[in-house]
Amino acid sequence: MSIAEQMGRVLQRTAHSTNIKERLDFSCALFGPDGGLVSNAPHIPVHLGSMQEAVKFQIDHRKGQFKKGSVILSNHPKAGGSHLPDLTVITPVFIDSEPAPVFFVANRGHHADIGGLTPGSMPPHSKKLTEEGAVFESFDIVLNNEFQEEAVTAQLMEPAKYPGCSGTRNLPDNLADLKAQIAANQKGISLVQDVINLYSLPVVQAYMKHIQTNAELSVRDLLKQVALKYNGESLIAEDFMDDGSRIALVVNIDALTGSALFDFSYSEKQVMGNCNAPKSITKSAVMYCLRCMVGYDIPLNQGCLAPITIKLTPGSILNPTDQAAVVGGNVQTSQRVVDVILRAFGVAASSQGCMNNITLGDETWGYYETVGGGAGAGPYWHGRPGVHSHMTNTRITDAEILESRYPILLNRFGLRAGSGGGGKYWGGDGMVREYVFRRGMTLCMLTERRVFWPRGLNGGSPGARGFNLLLSNSEGGLLSRLASKSSVQVQAGDIFCLYTPGGGGYGAPPGSTIVPPGEDDSSRTRRKYERLMAMKTNGVQYPADLETFLQ
């Protein structure tokens, strides 16, 4: 873990973009000669599980043929990618006495723009992979120790050949961050070689295997306990995306061996949109949840999945075709998969279920951030308010950095009081973030939980849904509600108001009767009032038909 952490520090210090340097939207890890994850720094869960698939793909694709002085760049979903803005840099680790790599080091960083339909490369309405930016399957970004700047530049500009698309809008940031990613891997190689020189290769590889075995045994013990708790019955749960797409899970546990089948085959078919999640994403979600449920410290690694079989239907929302749009699957569907797994095991109410992705920019720049919300409550804890939950673990950009580098002001940023679901343990509150635009630009949002509430568990109430509002300065203060997935042109003086969902509550308080919102007149009235209070911001002009708007 120390090796991966030091790789991360090098990447943060040497990167140029706000997204990697300040928001810390990256992950670093160490992999065995078979591509299996050995150890990682506590970075982004959705990256770490799927990066293992990326390394294994390259081993199979290149038939184990790797050269010293070479570095590979990849982001294609079929190659273990999460979505196209996440560029993965993989470097084999050689030592003098071995002709083949003895380990691999890799890192994945989210680039704020790599081309595509909209600035920020997170187009809300993409329907094909080619609309989401530049694609790298198995690209030699370094050959014979030389950075292939001309070739990678050409590939980053490639999306411009598709109708309505642009090449990258910020090439200098792309190149600087890629060089930082390469440098981070080189730091990892140096540290691995130091450890091998100190202890010898057989000893190091043996202990790496012990780490994976420890994780495997921990998960098997967990599954045996769960099987005993539920008398061997199947664990079943489902939830829905805002478009109605079903995410369903049946877990069958073998109590004798501590192994389990995670069957997602009842989930929705592939959608004509971008909430399709590559199969590596579901593997990441399963690995993350098992690691959380173990309950004590073990490194997140390949051993967590050793007792697990995952069943995914080809052509489904969780195992789409190679050319399906996937930019939302990584950041939205992954969260729903986690909520479904934790619900099936009965360990936590639903979180905000969304990364609240906001992208801004024009043809010369792109900016991207995710905004936290409420975490779900559990049997012994209240949900945390205003956090990046589950599959994301990034920072929010500081107001001072955002305002100094981009033509944006932050009018308000804080907790959305009362948005967490009630119960014996309360769900965490969501957040409010208001952006004032200093000049015209494109605003895009990829959000969820705007239709379905984050569900409570064991009698707990659901958290409040999120919503997105635009106060148009150019239209006399018209307040409009934006769809969960929108792309709009904003003008100077316009205000975008983002209200993120709260987390679900857990358990009903003794002697109380909590009614989920929407089930009777009093709760509907209360919900309207809460939404009205949430919209009261400085300078907002409410529409005349406010009652209609609230409905």
Automatic annotation (TrEMBL):
Domain Hydantoinase B/oxoprolinase: 1-509
Pfam families given in the database record: Hydantoinase_B
A GO MF label: 5-oxoprolinase (ATP-hydrolyzing) activity
UniProt cross-references to InterPro entries, sorted A to Z: Hydantoinase_B, Oxoprolinase-like
Entry's Gene Ontology cellular component terms: cytosol
Any single biological process term in GO: glutathione metabolic process
Protein name: 5-oxoprolinase
